[in-house]
Amino acid sequence: MLVLMPLNAPREHIESVKSKLLENDCKPHEIPGLVKLGIGVTGPTNKLRVEDFQTMDSVDEVVRVTKPFKLVSREMKKEDTTIQVGSQLIGGKKLTIIAGPCSVESKDQILEISSTLKEVGVSLLRAGAFKPRSSPYAFQGLKSAGLQILADAKKELGMSIVTEVKDTDTLDEIAAVADIIQIGARNMQNFSLLERIGELRQPVLLKRGLSATIEELLMSAEYIMSQGNYQVILCERGIRTFETYTRNTLDLNAIPVIKQLSHLPVIVDPSHGIGIADKVPAMALAGVACGGDGVIVEVHPHPELALSDGFQSLTPKNFKEMIGKIRQLAPIVGKEI
Ligand code: PEP
Ligand code: MN
What we know:
Elements: E1 2-6, H1 11-23, E2 27-32, E3 36-42, H2 50-54, E4 61-63, E5 83-85, E6 88-90, E7 96-100, H3 107-119, E8 124-126, H4 144-157, E9 160-165, H5 171-175, E10 180-183, H6 191-199, E11 204-207, H7 214-226, E12 232-236, H8 254-261, E13 266-268, H9 270-274, H10 280-289, E14 294-298, H11 316-329
Parallel strand pairs: 7-8, 7-14, 8-9, 9-10, 10-11, 11-12, 12-13
Antiparallel strand pairs: 1-3, 1-4, 2-3, 5-6
The protein binds phosphoenolpyruvate (PEP) and manganese (II) ion (MN).
């Protein structure tokens, strides 16, 4: 259920709506839009009577939300959600670029790639310190030492950090450094992790699971938002299909579908989506063309030496060329970069 009130409704009117919801074992979520203040309601809303709320002071409208995902849905909030991360506004008209190596490997690597990013005006650096790998024998990341390198890049170079959390044990440590906490595809349905992240008040990049449906992705976002963390960015990173030539199948269909179902920003990851470096720029452009709010791409100073995902990592030169093309495309699809 959604209770709509004027943006300038007196605080006591807002509070009495919220208390009435709490008395009925429901949870109110204040979601300010451009023209109205929405109070999203989760919990046993079937027990609530619309009429009881419609007559309350400053209540304009009470709407039943029909979708299984509530706070995530466009029914709950018509306007696009935007999320400020450092100097970058994510969502709305803005196109966001997040880039960096798959894993943090050394301070030199992070310094080098950060200067590449800065040359093209990209402030969001991605790199994993705790890596979920398919093989226990593969490089698992530099862990805490890797986080320290990211903290240095943040302090010394002003980069905003996007880094993955693998489990609840390391969440606090990661949250202290990350400007955006990345939840990897393999953890999209780690519900205890989602709930813990929901208790934080910092932006989250939620990647679509390997074989997750659009609805499952949105329900996972709902887990985070239901705990009060509304700063969720969705990420399409490719799904498993019968095709083996490419690493995954980047599901571009999902972008316009999710944009209609949800107000949350959607970022496209063509690196994991196709898994072949020389084809990443084409899919990045396609992701922007079909309405993505930006891209997250892997770039490495020396992809042939990368400890993870080198085959899908762009060289700095190819990365800069791709950014040039994205800049040309952005205004055609009504985006600013
Ligand atoms: C990554 O971003 O390096 C990564 C592990 O991605 P995913 O969770 O989408 O596989
Ligand atoms: Mn990777």
